[in-house]
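User: Structure please.
Assistant: Input sequence and predicted structure:
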Amino acid sequence: MNRRQTLQAGASFLGLLAASRLTGSAWAGPGPAFEVEKTEAEWRAVLSPAAYTVLREHGTERAGTSPLDREKRKGRFACAGCDLPLFASETKFDSGTGWPSFYAPLPDAVATRTDTAYGMRRTEVHCRRCGGHLGHVFEDGPRPTGLRYCMNGVALRFDPAA
């Protein structure tokens, strides 16, 4: 393979990667209806730029940057977009990944869908009330569920127990 062929192959790969990111992470079609719906301007007015990128554009914060990864107090972790309680502190564990991780959500708190962005097949987790992207769930967590809900801290708000 000569240099030109290598560059063409690389450009083709990057194009496919970008296309899979665009089609794999946005809601297909008109999307589901959520209890909490806002315009882009309304979301931008209530969310920080980082939270907007994660919750509304399916972004990911850098590993190790969220103080919630080190949060050890009793309480609840709620959606930063709509305040729906999502996870109890009792289900939080240190996964060593640099993101807040939980082995189970609260009942009726989250929903999932298949995410094929970046040429991978993962299970995306989103808030069932506002549709905000929270992170992904993996099957390498601790007992009792064996699941690891790997969440973006900027998509969450911590409410300490009284």
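The domain at 3-160 is CATH 2.170.150.20 (Metal Binding Protein, Guanine Nucleotide Exchange Factor; Chain A).
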